[in-house]
Design brief:
Strand order of the largest sheet: 1-2
Largest sheet: 2 strands, antiparallel
Number of helices: 9
Distance between the termini: 21 Å
Number of strands: 2
Order of helices and strands: HHEEHHHHHHH
Radius of gyration: 18 Å
Structural class: mainly alpha
Shape: globular
Strand content: 5-15%
Helix content: over 70%
């Protein structure tokens, strides 16, 4: 039986929802570790991008297997730089997700993100191992986009995009509410702004939840 376009769209998103549910059950498994590490990379890249935009200099950018990272900067707008990690990685995840609904945009956007990853990996990541891992992430994105069938490619990229967005919310919660003594972005923003880190945590979680609402709403529209 040949499926029409609406039926194909429904099946695509049904599979996607199943994968997301399975991912939530196996949130701490090794299978999701690469995506989480990828989100940490996007988080640190966001700090780096904000640094360059505000006229600062990146002294060192790094990620590690504990799913933490650092972006040491000089000059620039420190409040904006510290603030851009959470929303920046959420925006990256959202763009990856939304790009799958337009093939031309998908090709351009994934290429653009991969180039950003390559540039930062070569020029700012000091640890050679994680520099190679970052380059590998960019390469995998290109392979997924260019060489896999559209159905598989879109499914993988949508899964990466949605899990990236979910992990941002989880990361904020962990930084603000479970790691009180850890120098998180929220703690640094609090120090620079004079407002409590818990308040900043609630603000970023609220913004992220609003973003997730619109992502899910867009999926439902596509299914209808």
């Amino acid at each position: 039986m040949k499926l029409n376009s609406n039926q194909k769209i429904f099946i695509e998103h049904f599979i996607l929802f199943l994968l997301i549910i399975v991912s939530l059950f196996f949130w701490d498994s090794i299978f999701l570790f690469p995506i989480k590490l990828f989100v940490v990379l996007l988080h640190e890249l966001s700090h780096g991008i904000a640094t360059i935009i505000t006229g600062g200099k990146i002294l060192e950018l790094n990620i590690d297997s504990s799913l933490s990272g650092k972006c040491i900067t000089q000059d620039g707008n420190q409040l904006l730089i510290a603030s851009f990690g959470y929303p920046g990685s959420f925006i990256f995840g959202s763009l990856i997700f939304y790009s799958t609904y337009n093939k031309n945009i998908k090709t351009f956007l994934i290429l653009f993100i991969s180039i950003i990853i390559f540039l930062f990996a070569v020029n700012t990541i000091k640890d050679q191992y994680y520099s190679l891992i970052s380059i590998l992430f960019g390469f995998i994105l290109l392979v997924i986009t260019k060489y896999l069938p559209d159905f598989i490619s879109n499914l993988i990229l949508r899964l990466i995009g949605l899990i990236s967005c979910l992990y941002v919310i989880y990361d904020i919660k962990e930084d603000v509410f479970n790691n009180k003594n850890f120098l998180s972005d929220a703690a640094l923003i609090s120090e620079l702004s004079g407002l409590p880190s818990t308040l900043w945590g609630f603000i970023w979680i609220f913004i992220s939840l609003i973003g997730m609402f619109f992502l899910i709403k867009s999926i439902i529209k596509k299914i209808r």
